[in-house]
Design a protein that fits this description.
Chain lengths: 120, 534
């Protein structure tokens, strides 16, 4: 049996989460889903085999995607992070190293290309 | 001195004000006044004649004939005797009068012996000093009736001259203030942020009023604190930037609630600043103007001007400051509403992007079973082009977008910037034209990638536009030219992309496409007045 790399999709909007999960799954990955940052962190605490986290920025629950990304960088430095948002990336903030940002709506072929590169 | 305390007190208050208002103290000699004292001395046959102005702690001579000092302590002034009676004062023998026999000007080398002075009375009734003649020899008979009337006449002329001089100075001042107001108007119009605007305005105010500190403080909703972000100060003067509790400033409460400016000439002599005197002096405030800025019914800010020395503020200067405060308030309010608009726009953009993402998700789910993945991607790219046009529109609050940035967004999404050259003047597109143009560029580019100049490695696209006057109607002409691609073969059927292109910029066509063997060409035309539509 082939072990497929595991990607965690963090998105509060169910339809968009389903869409993102689908395209990534169809591209040959195993997908885990989380509806907010707290949810994502519990998943990461439970299992150590997540390779890439694909997260939205604006989410309920007090912790947004940028804070989640920074937290992942500190606690799980080996996990790659892709951030997406309907807002432009804040001009005054630098994108943390080894992270990629996609403005919404994103082209699935480009997101997949990045996921493949990161999971390789 | 034989006068009721009431009269004295009233005049004592009004004289310094009236004098300050004349703006004459410590100014250089002027011919008109010099002539008057010369004529007075000659008319009365005396060696000394003076135009004396009675300040609080000194007498100062605007003009002097036969005397070598510019001012003396007020205690040595003969002119001040019975000044508030506003009548001629004559002392035939100064050595024999109890009020002057110990005066050093009389007992000393200056040898004053006899005196006559006519009051300088302004139109307001204020008595500011005297035109006096002094003899160094006793003159028991005093002045003759003719000499007395000449002295009175000359005193009236001197008073009149002081008033005219003031009017000329005020008019000069008003011109200066007017010029400053124009300068401030420019600053307010051109400032990028509210703090910078308030600071630059304060600097102009400080300069034109020769003040030591000026600035704008914002008053909170509860009217408890005053926040001064930055203030302008003269060299060596400390800033008062920071948060101030308003209950420490008792004198401020009345103007804050009434909206009238607080005007203090000297904080040591003003009952309104006395309760906060220590605070005022710690901040080096001897004279001040506080102008409340009112939003109907409520004070929202305070424009302040401080002087480290006591000073008189002209009514014209107060009016100027009120005007400055009003303009500043309007400017700050404009910035605030622009900031809010920016936030709202950002929020709308965010929601729009999320909605487009939802549309993408739904479409993708709907087309899951579609075997032709390419059509899913084509749909996605059109959605992207639309999203890019919204980005360009957002820059100008959805009012208009620049043609070049729309094209850039659409081309960058596909990634052929290096092979598409663009050239044309700035053209503003309304929302409808911007969205159409974005989709058209996207389709043209997609076709160029599939069949045209961008299919191979060497072809290029030139996108140019110009404004042309066609009769009396100005029109936009956009040219899409492909060169260097494979031989062009006209397509057998028109796809959705071609239909989208043929709709044109404003939905009414105006599109010519040519399948020239050298390269595909498209011309898009639209009247300028149709392009601005929202």
């Amino acid at each position: 049996m082939i072990i497929r790399p595991i990607i965690l999709v963090v998105e509060d909007e169910p339809i968009v989460r389903l869409f993102a999960s689908d395209i990534i799954e169809e591209a040959g990955f195993e997908v885990l889903q989380a509806a907010d940052a707290t949810d994502a962190i519990s998943t990461l605490e439970e299992r150590s085999d997540v390779r890439v986290v694909f997260t939205d920025v604006d989410m309920p629950g007090g912790m947004d995607g940028i804070m989640l990304a920074i937290c992942i960088r500190e606690r799980w430095p080996d996990i790659q992070v892709i951030i997406t948002s309907g807002r432009p990336w804040p001009q005054e903030t630098k994108l943390p190293k080894n992270m990629v940002f996609f403005p919404k709506p994103y082209r699935q072929d480009r997101v997949l290309e990045t996921v493949r590169k990161m999971a390789a | 001195m034989g006068l009721s305390a009431g009269t004295t007190a009233m005049s004592a208050i009004s004289r310094p004000k009236a004098l300050a208002d004349l703006m004459v103290l410590d100014t250089p000699a002027e011919q008109a006044f010099d002539d008057l004292v010369f004529v007075a001395a000659k008319a009365c046959g005396v060696p000394i004649a003076l135009i004396t102005l009675l300040d609080v702690d000194r007498q100062w001579f605007k003009a002097r004939y036969g005397l070598d000092v510019q001012e003396t302590e007020i205690e040595h002034s003969v002119c001040r005797i019975e000044i508030d009676r506003a009548e001629m004062l004559e002392i035939a023998d100064l050595t024999a009068d109890g009020r002057t026999d110990c005066n050093p000007l009389v007992t000393g080398a200056r040898h004053f012996r006899s005196y006559a002075g006519a009051p300088l009375v302004l139109r307001s009734g204020a008595v500011v000093g005297r035109l006096c003649v002094i003899d160094t020899a006793p003159r028991p008979e005093g002045l003759s009736e003719l000499e007395r009337s000449m002295l009175r006449a000359l005193a009236r002329l001197a008073s009149e001259n002081l008033e005219l001089r003031r009017i000329a100075k005020v008019s000069e001042r008003q011109t200066e203030l007017q010029v400053a107001l124009v300068e401030i108007g420019e600053i307010i119009r051109n400032s990028g942020d509210a703090g910078q605007m308030a600071l630059a305005t304060a600097a102009v105010v400080g300069r034109v009023l020769t003040a030591d500190r000026a600035g704008l403080g914002l008053v909170d909703d509860a009217v408890e604190v005053l926040d001064v972000e930055r203030d302008w100060t003269a060299p060596g003067v400390l800033s008062v930037a920071g948060r101030h509790a308003l209950d420490e400033y008792h004198g401020l409460q009345a103007p804050l609630s009434s909206g009238d400016p607080l005007v203090v000439f000297d904080s040591l002599a003003d009952e309104r600043t006395l309760p906060n005197l220590a605070l005022a002096l710690r901040n080096g405030v001897r004279a001040l103007v506080d102008v409340p800025v009112r939003d109907p019914g409520r004070t929202t800010a305070l424009f302040f001007v401080h002087s480290t020395r006591p000073r008189y503020w002209l009514a014209e200067e107060i009016a100027f400051l009120r005007s400055v405060a009003d303009r500043l308030e309007a400017g700050v309010a404009r910035h605030r509403s622009e900031e809010q608009q920016r936030i709202v726009n950002g929020e709308i953009a965010h929601r729009l992007k999320n909605t487009l993402t939802m549309v993408q998700a739904i479409a993708s789910q709907t087309l899951r079973s579609a075997t032709d993945r390419e059509s899913v991607y084509a749909f996605e790219r059109r959605l992207m082009a639309l999203s890019g046009a919204h980005d360009a529109l957002l820059h100008n609050s959805w009012a208009r977008a620049d043609l070049a940035s729309i094209a850039t967004n659409a081309i960058e999404a596909i990634g052929f910037m290096d092979r598409v050259s663009m050239n044309g003047p700035p053209v503003a597109l309304g929302a409808q034209a911007a969205l159409s143009f974005s989709l058209i560029v996207h389709e043209l580019l997609t076709n160029a990638c599939k069949y045209g100049a961008l299919k191979g490695d060497s072809g290029e696209v030139s996108l140019t536009w110009e404004i042309k006057s066609d009769g009396d109607e100005a029109g936009l002409m956009i040219k899409w030219r492909e060169r260097g691609g494979p031989l062009v073969i006209p397509p057998a059927r028109r796809g959705f992309g071609s239909k989208l292109i043929s709709i044109g910029l404003v939905g009414t066509g105006g599109v010519d496409t040519r399948y020239d063997p050298e390269g595909f060409e498209a011309d898009l035309r639209a009247p300028i007045r149709h392009l601005a539509k929202g």
